[in-house]
Structures are given as C-alpha cells and as structure tokens.
Amino acid sequence: MSLSKIKIRSVEENDIPILYDMLKEFREIPYACIHERPLPPYDDSKKYVSKFLYDNDNHELDKWYMVIDSENKVLGSVNLSKKNYISYQILIPFQGNGFGKKSVELLIEQNPRDRYFISVHNKNEISQNLSKKLGFTLKALILEKSQD
Hints:
By secondary structure, the protein is α+β, with helices and mostly antiparallel strands. The protein has four helices and four strands; from the N terminus they run βααβββαα.
C-alpha cells in the first residue's frame, strides 16, 4: 500500500464502534498510552465521540480524523487537541509501514499551528523515534506519584 494513497477524513458518528475497538486494541499494547486508566464502558466512549461531533466547543479535541487507504479501509486515527497535542493510533496489522508518520504529517498540513506537542510514554521507543522523525524534540519530563 502506497503512502501517497493514505488520507485522513473527519470522524463520523458511524466510526464510534471502530474507534471503541481501536481503543480496546490500544489498551493492550504495552506503553502505548501515558496513563493507565481502565477501558471505559462503550456507552462512555460513545458519549465522548458524540460530544466531539455535536458539542465541540466543550470538548478537549479540536480535530479528529480516521486514517484511511484509497479504498476507505480504516488504518487508524489521529487527533489534535485544543492545546495542540497530537495523538495517533495505527491498528496493529498496519504498524511499521509509515502510516503513523504520514497521518501526523497530514494532520499538521491541514491544521497549521505555531507549535504542536506529542506525549509519549518513556518506555515507548517506537513512538519516541517517530516523534523525532517528525521533527519533535524532547522538552520536558513528567513524573507521577500514585497513591496505590
């Protein structure tokens, strides 16, 4: 599959089930996420996406896209928060093919800002390397103390 045929399209209501399945997959990948919150119930996830779609002024995300190929097959998703944080997820079967890099490049191209941020788990070397390939540089460390 050619990277030149990869596109992003805005998230739609009918994407909610696939976004939830992607979230489940994402939670199973070690160090994919910087927080360790449990998987929310489907209805909570549906409300989150619906709020983005229908009450965006009160949502943390500014833009949210599905990453698709030339046949509209979903490869992942990418989003941009109102604070310019980029998040991306490429489905496991499609990882390692440059789709993550391409999707972030497309998001940046379509949403110009003065600066962008990506938060990556300190043990997620793949995402750290991808961020560096995209021109991001390390600016801070976030330390956590839990009350477990």
